[in-house]
Hints:
The chain is of the alpha/beta class. It contains 6 helices and 11 strands. The protein is globular.
Amino acid sequence: MSQLFVVHPENPQPRLLKQAAQFLQEGGLVAVPTDSSYAVVARLDDKAAADRLRKLRGLDERHHLTVLCQDMAGISQFAHVDNAQFRLLKHATPGPWTFILEASREVPRRVSHPSRKTIGIRVPDHPVALALLKTVESPLLSTTLIPPGEDEPLNDPEEIRTRFQHQLAAVIDAGSCSLEPTTIIDLSGSEPVTVRRGRGDPSVLGLD
Length: 208
């Protein structure tokens, strides 16, 4: 059975986050609330954990995984960002957005798209997710917690724990969060392209 950490949604207990971080350090997958929905996270440099993350979601290597960063510095480390992209990202983050960008050399090959050499990247606007990133002291590999064959992300920590008790090392329970996924904006081409409309409104960024 996965370990359940019940934390305060705005001021999560550091002791519990340290315990969750230890599971990640040991190669486990952890479910964490974000400003869009619950996500599954793993260490960025752990190939076995990345493979298990894809298996849990039923994803192949062509599906973009997302690098979850604590701030803009993390984005600049793992993606090539020009001045116009930087201004847009600064306006949008933190928030319910995933941006597709050209991956830097810092991104492991298994994480970036195999043909396009791009990466999904985002800064969540949720106290628990941000506190976990601060505790881990590193960006994390993530994907929205949508069960294989389903269209909607899961929102109930107890249900997540029950359904994935043999695949998740831990679930961080901060109560329910949004059921809307992030809005995905592809910035890897000459013009921004809205790939998926979710919780973020593209018009806020001056996009259609």
